[in-house]
Specification:
Elements lengths: L16 H5 L5 E5 L5 E5 L9 H4 L13 H6 L1 E7 L2 H4 L7 H11 L3 E8 L4 E7 L16 E2 L1 H10 L5 E5 L1 H13 L7 E5 L7 H15 L6 E3 L13 E4 L2 E5 L6 H6 L23 E5 L13 E5 L2 H10 L3 E6 L1 H5 L12 H12 L5 H10 L3 H15 L4 H6 L3
Parallel strand pairs: 4-7, 5-6, 7-8, 8-12
Antiparallel strand pairs: 1-2, 3-13, 3-14, 4-5, 9-10, 10-11, 12-13
Helix pairs in contact: 5-10, 12-13
The structure holds flavin-adenine dinucleotide and iron/sulfur cluster (SF4) (3 copies).
The site of flavin-adenine dinucleotide has 33 residues, from helix 5, strand 4, strand 7 and strand 12.
Length: about 400
């Protein structure tokens, strides 16, 4: 049995752990035609040992979903780093960055995600010095290529303590592997509240558009969620030669328009059980959405402390943050936790087909999406546009009544 075997229970999350655990190197990871990372098995090399299936979400019919009673018992804090300089570089309140640095100090090798401009993709990489963890700063709202870093972890798990940062699907698969090897107690796992990951074709087209706008120059800084208009907004910002070269506006925002349509996310993201359970991680981080910090422009993290290990490491960094006690009930109101998306399969296929068509413009694909929507999504789009030109944050004002 290998990861091509049937029947499967869940869709592939693109976590790539199957490839990392295969000692025969029988699994290559490539983008499929819709732009999602998928495993390709060389059946001649494969010995049918079945190890890849043991870390894989597709075959797990016993995903542990935390009961609502237990979810409410989880300790949750809001946290905002005391330094404004750091807050400019991170997506929310900066907890992931400080955690990684603390864990390096405690002797862990950290595994987190950087954006590799040469490969035009997000990648999991290793950091064994504090400076190397700077590359993890900021969320990259695309799937990461993780197989090389995960292979390193698999190879060195008996001699090295790892701290892994990733989405719930990464952390689930790493946790499964660590349990199999009896090494869970030596590692710290930190995951993120997760909306989902879009087709890589969406990012590739968007990146190509930006390159055309800025004169096909090499990007030296890619911020998927710049705080140029404050935290809580979704603006891509690109730096070239140390200067701001591009910031997305509602007129050039096809990446997030289509991302939040939920139409072009990975197959597993629609009914993902992993973003809706707290069973596999030590700490879950996210944006502290909701009414409490609606006027905060710098960024506030939500920190859910799931295990004792998680508690110890968060306590060690707490002094660097302004924190307030909260609850999962408050945090989950604006998260995708427990939510299932039901994208219209015809529109989804139409959009995915358009994204892989080199002759179709992203603007045209965005228009195609809105032409299939009713009054409310088109009204929201108009409000976003007006908001950009207003001196005060009109959208946040409206959110007070939501
Ligand atoms: C695809 C995606 C979807 C998300 N959806 C939500 C959501 O619905 N709700 C919510 O509250 N928060 C979501 N987040 C998390 C949020 O954007 C912040 O990453 C989180 O609040 C931590 O911010 P920070 O300021 O503490 O640290 P930052 O310095 O911003 O740290 C970012 C951390 O995320 C890791 N990371 C970056 N990109 C990726 C990636 N592509 N895959 C895996 N790990 C990555 C880095 O290694 C680093 O540890 C999402 C993040 C991603 C990448
Ligand atoms: S879910 Fe992960 S482990 Fe399973 S097939 Fe997909 S990439 Fe491989
Ligand atoms: S069954 Fe074993 S040998 Fe075959 S792909 Fe999976 S891990 Fe590799
Ligand atoms: S919703 Fe998030 S955790 Fe679930 S499969 Fe998609 S990217 Fe992974």
């Amino acid at each position: 049995m290998n990861i091509n075997s049937h029947p499967v229970i869940n869709e592939c999350t693109s976590c790539q752990m199957c490839s990392a655990v295969c000692s025969r190197n029988a699994i290559a990871i490539r983008l499929n035609e819709d732009g999602f990372y998928r495993p390709y098995v060389d059946e001649i090399i494969c010995t049918d040992c079945g190890l890849c299936t043991l870390v894989c979400y597709k075959y797990d019919n016993d995903i542990k979903v935390t009961s609502s009673e237990d979810v409410e018992k989880i300790d949750v804090y809001s946290a905002q780093h005391v330094s404004d300089t750091l807050l400019e570089k991170v997506t929310s309140g900066g907890v992931a960055d400080v955690l990684a640095k603390e864990l390096i100090d405690q002797g862990f090798v950290c595994v987190g995600v950087t954006y590799n401009e040469d490969n035009h993709r997000a990648e999991h990489i290793m950091a064994s010095t504090i400076r190397e963890t700077d590359a993890f700063r900021g969320s990259k709202y695309i799937q990461s290529y993780s197989v090389d870093a995960f292979k390193y972890l698999v190879k060195n798990i008996r001699t090295t303590k790892f701290a892994v940062f990733g989405l719930p699907c990464h952390i689930y698969a790493i946790n499964k592997f660590l349990m199999l090897r009896n090494q869970r107690d030596n590692c710290i796992l930190v995951d993120l509240f997760c909306h989902g990951c879009p087709s890589m074709h969406l990012w590739t087209k968007y990146e190509q558009d930006i390159k055309r706008l800025v004169g096909n120059k090499k990007f030296d800084d890619v911020q998927f969620r710049s705080k140029v208009k404050g935290w809580g907004t979704f603006h891509v910002a690109i730096g070239i030669d140390g200067k701001n070269a591009f910031v997305s506006t509602p007129r050039k925002d096809e990446f997030y328009s289509l991302f939040f349509s939920d139409m072009v996310l990975n197959d597993a993201c629609s009914d993902c059980l992993l973003r809706s359970t707290m069973e596999y991680t030590d700490i879950r981080l996210g944006d502290f959405w909701g009414k409490r910090y609606l006027n905060n422009k710098k960024g506030v993290s939500a920190v859910a402390i799931v295990s004792e290990r998680g508690e110890q490491v968060f306590k060690a960094i707490m002094d660097s943050f302004k924190t307030e006690k909260s609850s999962m009930k408050e945090v989950l109101v604006k998260q995708s936790y427990g939510i299932v998306y039901s994208p219209d399969s015809t529109i989804r296929k139409m959009l995915l087909d358009a994204l892989k068509d080199k002759d179709k413009s992203l603007k045209g694909i965005e228009e195609l999406y809105y032409s299939k929507q009713g009054f409310i999504p088109n009204l929201k789009r108009l409000i976003k546009l007006i908001d950009w030109y207003l001196p005060f944050n009109f959208t946040n004002f409206l959110k007070r009544f939501a």
